[in-house]
Design a protein that fits this description.
Blueprint (H helix, E strand, L loop, with lengths): L9 H6 L2 E6 L2 E6 L14 H17 L5 E12 L7 E10 L3 E9 L5 E13 L15
Antiparallel strand pairs: 1-2, 2-4, 3-6, 4-5, 5-6
Length: 141
């Protein structure tokens, strides 16, 4: 069970993302894609990359407000080249208000080349108290 993200996230645990760090508005994750994470071109599937970026951006947002959870309000992803090998994703909190976080992040392949970039907006929400009792109503209002 992966709890280094400050919360247990079953999907993240399933994908095998590894937290390198998240602190002071920055985050870094490592992802070693398995065969089931590939697309028909035998490179990491875009959906896996978007999930990696979503978690990277969210942890950058949470790194300055660890007692809160965040929910994704909006995310834009640009794919630049195929993602091969072990991937590193780095995120940064660009700006925050009392209730919102504005972030950006980049995925690098095993050679350090940029594969994908995203920007995202997150809303700070109360953190789920326990993985077996998720928050039933998460408002984005």
């Amino acid at each position: 069970m992966q709890e280094s993200f400050g919360a247990y996230i079953p999907f993240v645990d399933h994908l095998g993302f590894e937290m390198v760090f998240f602190d002071d508005g920055q985050s870094e994750l490592r992802f070693e894609p398995e065969p089931e994470h590939m697309n028909s071109f035998n490179v990491t599937h875009g959906g896996a990359l978007m999930t990696l970026l979503d978690v990277t951006l969210a942890t950058a947002a949470r790194s300055v407000e660890r007692t809160s959870g965040v929910v994704t309000v909006e995310m834009k992803t640009t794919f630049m080249q195929p993602a091969r090998g072990v991937l590193t994703s780095k995120g940064r909190l660009i700006h925050r208000s009392r209730s919102m976080a504005f972030t950006e992040g980049t995925v690098y392949d095993a050679q350090g080349q940029v594969c994908a970039h995203a920007t995202g907006t997150f809303k700070y929400v109360p953190k789920a108290p326990d993985p077996s009792h998720p928050v039933s109503d998460i408002s984005t209002d």
